[in-house]
Amino acid sequence: MGQKVSPKAIRLKMSESWKSLWFSDKKYSDQVVEDIKIKSRLSKELKSAFLSDITIDRDANTITINIFSSRPGVIIGRGGSGSEKIKKLIENKSRSRVKVNIFEVKKPDIDPEIVAQSVALQLEKRFPFRRAIKQALEKSRDAGAKGVRIQVAGRLNGADIARREKVQFGTIPLSSFDKEIKYGTAHALTTYGIIGVKVWIYLGEGRK
């Protein structure tokens, strides 16, 4: 049962941080729901930008949205039109002023969220799943990861019975909290149903 816990939640304040960086005594639940809706909407709108993370900060009158992507140019658009569109999209749903910051992910091959999305995209394009996960693993290994595990589950290659397959390189010390292990998920919408993708990447010693 030790591996059932979320690798992100159990490492909060060690190698992971909160995604909503604010506190409120009033309307707390409403703001949490609003954060979830903002992240869900942006994830759908910006799917082609390969998002690594979205964090949200709030003060009295402003919502600050930090978007981390391996393709920031796709989000910003020509002359900043893309980021302005995002800003107006959120402001129309919220009563607060919105500020959008966009950051580039320098090493996407060792970012588990981006790796998972890349594998899912290939599965949607009907790439053989074994080739897709092996290529992703090799790229992460070459980029400097000390350990990589990629798992896919569902009706792989259109099989009648759903199953789970995984590949691994190096070690993934999930029980050692002083190790920096990143975790990401994605899902591929195929003609045979949804295929889930999970990625664990071990980067070395975490913060003490």
TrEMBL record:
One of its GO terms (biological process) is translation. One of its GO terms (cellular component) is cytosolic small ribosomal subunit. Residues 38-106 form the KH type-2 domain. The keyword Ribosomal protein applies. It holds the Pfam family KH_2. One of its GO terms (molecular function) is mRNA binding. The keyword Ribosomal protein applies. SMART domains: KH (SM00322). Keywords: Ribonucleoprotein, Ribosomal protein, RNA-binding, rRNA-binding. It comes from the Bacteria. Binds the lower part of the 30S subunit head. Binds mRNA in the 70S ribosome, positioning it for translation. Belongs to the universal ribosomal protein uS3 family. Part of the 30S ribosomal subunit. Forms a tight complex with proteins S10 and S14. This is Small ribosomal subunit protein uS3. It comes from Candidatus Berkelbacteria bacterium RIFOXYA2_FULL_43_10. The lineage of its organism: Bacteria, Candidatus Berkelbacteria. The gene is rpsC.
